[in-house]
Write a structure and sequence with these properties.
By secondary structure, the protein is of the alpha+beta class. The protein has helices at about 5-20, 70-80, 105-140, 145-180, and strands spanning about 40, 45, 50-60, 60-65, 90, 95-100. The protein has a four-stranded antiparallel β-sheet with strand order 3-4-6-5, covered by helices on one side. Strands 1-2 form a two-stranded antiparallel sheet. Helix 3 (about 105-140) runs antiparallel to helix 4. The longest helix is centred in the C-terminal third of the chain and has 38 residues, at about 105-140. The radius of gyration is 22 Å and the shape is elongated. The termini are far apart.
């Protein structure tokens, strides 16, 4: 039995968690928080990165310079309606997003959110493990594999689960430390 399907699912779960973590702002400006913002560009929803130049001139500021000045209002609206909690400031040519210093209370809330997302990823990993074990048991019941093969496969599945759970723990710790660092 091939376990790569289950390993790929676990890998996707980890990648999904890491991409969710990029949208959690830690007081420092990270242009990746704008990845999910879409702009109506001549009737087509386009990612912000494809209609503007995004830069980080200072540690706590993102600068967005649209390639067409008529897009400034649309970009501003998209940022305001997103869940970023940032208010854009524009001077007619450039939009600036200033990241306020996070309060201790807000940092603790963000760490809780980080842990909650990590826990959800671990649950997803365990569900994938359960599905894989169910497949192995079905094959054993249908006499397609021997008991020894069943045990070996279940061990491999558990090792995969442990590996990805450890990586999720590492991601949780890394993001929590990043959020709590002033």
């Amino acid at each position: 039995m091939d376990l790569t399907v289950f390993e790929e699912k676990m890998e996707k779960t980890l990648n999904n968690l890491e991409s969710e973590y990029t949208s959690i702002r830690a007081g420092r400006a990270n242009p990746r928080i704008l990845d999910k913002i879409q702009i109506d560009y001549y009737g087509t929803m386009s990612p912000l990165q494809s209609v503007a130049n995004i830069s980080v001139p200072e540690a706590r500021m993102i600068q967005i310079q649209p390639w067409e000045s008529n897009l400034i209002k649309d970009i501003e609206k998209a940022i305001l309606s997103s869940d970023l909690g940032l208010t854009p400031a524009n001077d007619g040519k450039v939009i600036r997003l200033v990241f306020p210093e996070l309060t201790e209370e807000r940092r603790k809330e963000l760490v809780k959110d980080v842990k909650k997302k990590g826990e959800a990823a671990k649950v997803a990993i365990r569900n994938i493990r359960r599905d894989a074990n169910d497949d192995v048991k079905k094959q054993a019941k249908a006499n397609e594999i021997s008991e020894d093969e069943q045990k070996q496969l279940e061990d491999k599945i558990q090792k995969l689960t442990d590996k990805f759970t450890a990586e999720i723990d590492k991601a949780i710790d890394g993001k929590s430390n990043e959020v709590m660092t002033v």
